[in-house]
Specification:
The protein is an alpha+beta fold. Strands 17-18-20-21-22-23-24-25 form an 8-stranded mixed β-barrel, surrounded by 5 helices. It has a 6-stranded antiparallel β-sheet with strand order 3-2-1-6-5-4. A 5-stranded antiparallel β-sheet has the order 8-7-11-10-9. Helix 13 (557-578) runs parallel beside helix 14. The longest helix is centred in the N-terminal third of the chain and has 78 residues, at 2-79. The chain is rod-shaped, with a radius of gyration of 64 Å. The protein starts with a helix and ends with a helix. The chain binds ligand C2E and calcium ion (2 copies). The site of ligand C2E has 24 residues, from strand 18, helix 12, helix 13 and strand 22.
């Protein structure tokens, strides 16, 4: 019990430990993820930022490049309109300029002749021969100048210039188209960190040509990018990063920025994406925070679900372990006695056997006829008896021993001993305590002891042998015990072999009727009848009933055998009757098992009828111990037997505990006084004589005849005659004999 509780609480502990480990692991994983994520995120923000900056810059540079290309291409198309203007009149040129202007392709447009004289659509003329846009254009270059002043208007313009060819492909002039300076809106900017205000167009010397109006890093058109950055590496560095298409983190106006430099396709300029790191970080950080939140919430949800799951599982397992514990409890604790159960006994038995230095006895104990106790006390009363018995066992064995109820009223004790006398004492003490137990019914216990010699003996073997010993003391009408000996095994083997052949033996008529004559003690010792006693003639050997009757009593085969014997006797009676002999009453032994059958008497009558023999030629012997089973049934069966005309005798009278008082209720004809009365010592002889005299007197007063069994000497015969006994049976007169011998004895004289 204690062991069981320990193992249960240790199970709970294991549960808690496992749960704690899981919890710590989960928390650990979460912390690792969080820390790792935090560490990685700074790094990642930089990496992602530079990547974003670079790819955005590339995208935007391409967009600007193609924008410029588009503008140049449009202007080139317009230039074809001026192919024949080499020697044209001013008005002619103005006319074409206005025509182009009205197309709304450029904000303004100017035609510059070979000499560098620029013609405006409104008739104004300016000399721009000094300007790069003219000088490059007149040698065939297509140019773009951003944010430069316009000869015809105040304010800066982006000016595109293309050469004008005549029909012979000779450059005759330069055409300029003017745009308001390129702005964020003008280009398909790829936004960085949610805005476009981070692009700067710089020329090949690092001078800013174009800057957003709200430059976050306060860079203006005309500024030297390198003057503003913390970089001292100069133009080469700028060219290098451009070459490598790299992003760098550097200070601009004292602010950490990520700069990506990309060349604008079709030009010598570069696009710088200059984004303050903080802006990127807060933007990307924001995204990261969102991602982080998503991750955290996901983890939290998973964690909560896991926790709920664990709690539920714990709850369930608690519930379950409670259930298991309940079951385990009933598994290890006997429900009736509340002492450890047989399961516990069986499980712990091997542990005891490991103590090779200790000698153990396995004691089997049960209550003789516990069923009758249950019948008279009721189920609860029977249980109470079992509890008291368990208490008795418990206090008569050592604390270190163990015992358990196997089933019903069967207990097993594993008893450690030094001397065999220890075992005897314990067993005797238990028997004593049972005798003095507070009980309303008679109760005897039977105990069998097996001394375990080999510690490898299994519990089954030990129990089996103790049981054999116990069974050998059954039906003793007193508490008793026996030690196992190997002869018991022999006996069991013998029983088995008997059982295996008994039915065949009956069919083969191996059972023979022997007859023991009965003599009158009154008139000249006349042969007045006989008792039929069974003999088994098997393979030429005659087996006496002591060897097989108890086996048949146990397995019920006795019922068949008795009917067989009865029928054989019927046949004999019929034969003798037909031979003209004066019939003699023959008694047939009937096992008390017949009392259980409702048609027992009818069966016997039917057999008599079959052979047409009157029932009065038979005497039915039933042992006194049958009264032990159920007196009421015995009384009614005796009455029935008598009513149909059989004689009835109580066999082995005086061996049981039936009282003389019982006699007056029993309708019997004959009392068979057991031969044990005659085998007493000389001293006791006197007492026995008195008892016999008493019994004989009482019987005769009740009109019951008496016969004494087992008379072996003339003295005994004389004594019984003197005591008034009516008949005698015994070796002194005649032994049980084969039918032929009996016939000679009874009918040939
Ligand atoms: P029981 O009914 O008490 O039979 C008397 C037993 O005493 C017989 O033993 C008999 O041989 C023996 N006996 C007779 N005179 C003397 C004597 O002077 N000295 C000694 N020592 N013994 C004497 P048996 O034939 O061995 O039968 C043993 C028991 O077997 C019988 O005891 C009876 O209870 C049972 N039995 C025998 N045949 C049958 C049967 O057909 N049916 C039933 N149910 N039981 C039978
Ligand atoms: Ca008998
Ligand atoms: Ca007898």
């Amino acid at each position: 019990m204690k062991k069981f509780r320990q193992s249960y609480s240790s199970q709970i502990k294991t549960h808690i430990i496992i749960t704690a480990i899981i919890a710590v692991l989960i928390i650990g994983i979460l912390i690792t993820i969080a820390v790792g994520y935090r560490t990685r995120s700074t790094e990642t923000i930089i990496n992602v930022s530079t990547a974003v900056s670079m790819s955005s810059a590339k995208g935007t540079a391409n967009a600007i490049g193609s924008y410029f290309e588009r503008r140049i291409s449009i202007l080139t198309n317009l230039s074809y309109l001026f192919c024949s203007c080499e020697n044209a009149e001013e008005e002619e040129i103005e006319k074409i300029l206005n025509y182009c202007y009205n197309m709304n392709l450029f904000d303004d447009i100017a035609y510059i002749n070979k000499e560098g004289i620029a013609y405006h659509r409104d008739g104004r003329v300016k000399n721009v021969s000094h300007r790069a846009l003219f000088r490059q254009g007149i040698i065939g270059e297509k140019t773009t100048f951003l944010n430069i002043d316009n000869e015809f208007d105040s304010g800066n313009y982006d000016i595109y210039s293309v050469p004008v060819y005549n029909e012979n492909d000779e450059i005759i002039a330069v055409l300029s188209g003017m745009d308001t300076p390129l702005s964020v809106e003008g280009v398909d900017y790829v936004e960085i960190a949610g805005n476009a205000d981070c692009y700067y167009l710089v020329d090949e010397r690092g001078t800013i040509l174009m800057a957003p109006e709200n430059s976050p890093v306060r860079l203006r058109v005309g500024d030297d990018i390198f003057a503003k950055t913390g970089d001292t590496k100069g133009l080469d560095y700028y060219l290098n990063i451009r070459e490598a298409s790299q992003s760098v983190v550097t200070d601009v106006n004292g602010e950490a920025c990520i700069i990506s430099c990309v060349s604008i396709p079709g030009s010598v300029w570069s696009l710088l994406a200059v984004t303050p790191y903080d802006v990127l970080k807060s933007y990307l950080g924001g995204m990261f925070v969102i991602t982080l939140w998503v991750v955290i919430i996901t983890i939290a949800v998973i964690a909560i679900l896991t926790a709920v799951l664990i709690i539920r599982m714990l709850g369930l397992s608690k519930h379950f372990s409670g259930y298991v514990a309940e079951n385990k409890k009933s598994y290890y604790v006997d429900e009736i006695t509340k002492y450890p159960s047989w399961n516990s006994f069986r499980e712990h038995y091997p542990d005891f056997m490991k103590n090779t230095g200790t000698s153990y006895a396995l004691i089997s104990l049960d209550i003789d006829k516990f069923k009758t106790i249950n019948d008279s006390l009721g189920y609860e009363g029977g249980n109470e008896v079992l509890r008291q018995l368990a208490d008795i066992i418990s206090r008569n064995i050592n604390k270190t021993d163990m015992f358990a109820r196997n089933s019903g009223d069967l207990f097993y004790i594993l008893f450690a001993y030094d001397n065999i006398s220890d075992v005897r004492n314990a067993v005797s003490n238990i028997i004593n305590d049972v005798d003095y137990m507070d009980k309303t019914v008679k109760m005897y216990v039977c105990m069998g002891v097996y001394l375990i010699i080999d510690h490898n003996t299994t519990v089954e073997t030990a129990v089996g042998r103790a049981n054999l010993a116990r069974r050998s003391v059954k039906d003793q009408k007193q508490s008793s015990f026996a030690f196992f000996d190997n002869a018991m095994i022999e006996r069991i083997r013998d029983e088995r072999s008997i059982e295996s052949i008994m039915e065949e033996a009956l069919i083969k008529k191996e059972f023979k009727v022997y007859l023991q004559p009965k003599y009158s003690l009154e008139d000249g010792n006349e042969l007045v009848g006989a008792e039929a006693l069974v003999r088994w003639l098997h393979d030429g050997t005659l087996i006496t009933p002591n060897r097989f009757i108890p086996v048949f009593e146990k397995n019920g085969f006795i019922v068949q055998l008795d009917y067989y014997m009865f029928e054989e006797v019927c046949k004999l009676q019929k034969k003798w009757f037909e031979m003209g002999h004066r019939p003699k009453v023959v008694s047939v032994n009937m096992s008390r098992l017949h009392l259980r059958s409702k048609h027992f008497v009818e069966d016997l009558v039917a057999i008599c009828n079959k052979y047409d023999i009157a029932t009065k030629y038979f005497e039915i012997e039933i042992t006194e111990s049958a009264a032990y089973e159920n007196l009421d049934i015995l009384l009614s069966v005796f009455e029935k037997i008598k009513n149909v005309g059989f004689h009835v005798s109580i066999d082995d009278f005086g061996t049981g505990y039936s009282s003389l008082n019982m006699l007056k209720d029993l309708k019997v004809d004959v009392l068979k006084i057991d031969r044990s009365f005659l085998t007493e010592s000389a001293d006791e002889n006197e007492n026995a004589s008195r008892i016999i005299a008493c019994v004989v007197a009482l019987a005769s007063s009740l009109n019951i005849s008496t016969i004494c069994e087992g008379i072996e000497t003339k003295e005994q015969a004389d004594l019984l005659k003197k005591l008034g006994c009516n008949m005698a049976q015994g070796y002194f007169f005649a032994r049980p004999m084969p039918v032929a011998d009996f016939e000679k004895l009874a009918y040939e004289n």
